[in-house]
Design a protein that fits this description.
5 strands; 6 helices; 5-stranded parallel beta sheet; single chain
Length: 152
């Protein structure tokens, strides 16, 4: 499994620890930045990079971390093919994967502890997509996305 991973400066420390957490579980990590956490960085280009890797299939999914997770989730969802979900607790993480099959997990470093981020990540990675009645809904999302691309 290969995961793209990125953060802004607020999420840098959590990203670095989560990277090691993933590597310890034999998951390949593509670190999309930043390379350091002591300088402010813009989150949009990092979210775009992580999301594009997930959307293209270069990675099996992505994880984005900023202070609240909101900015990263908004930016990632601008990339066609991405279903980014903000998950700052376990209930949402489970159903975001099982029902919506999110392919980018977003979290807030100022909201969740490192331990909770690891638990959310594990749950997201291990929860299977339910399929069934949720498949038409994902198709509706894709159709909406396609329609919006064609609208001037």
């Amino acid at each position: 499994m290969k995961i793209s991973l990125g953060s802004d400066h607020a999420g840098y420390e959590m990203k670095e620890k989560l990277k090691q957490f993933l590597l310890d579980r034999s998951i390949t990590v593509m670190d999309c930045g930043p390379g350091r956490g002591d300088q402010p960085v813009e989150y949009v280009p990092i979210a775009q990079n992580v999301a594009q890797k997930a959307a293209s299939g270069e990675t099996d999914g992505g994880i984005l971390i900023c202070g609240t997770g909101i900015g990263m989730s908004i930016a990632a969802n601008k990339v066609p093919g991405i279903r980014a979900g903000l998950c700052n607790e376990l209930f949402t993480a489970r159903y975001a994967k099982s029902d919506v099959n999110i392919n980018v997990l977003c979290m807030g470093s100022r909201i969740v502890s490192q331990r909770m981020a690891e638990e959310i990540t594990t749950l997201w990675l291990e929860t299977p997509f339910t399929g069934g009645r949720f498949i038409p809904r994902l198709q509706q999302l894709k159709d909406l996305e396609d329609e919006m691309r064609q609208t001037p």
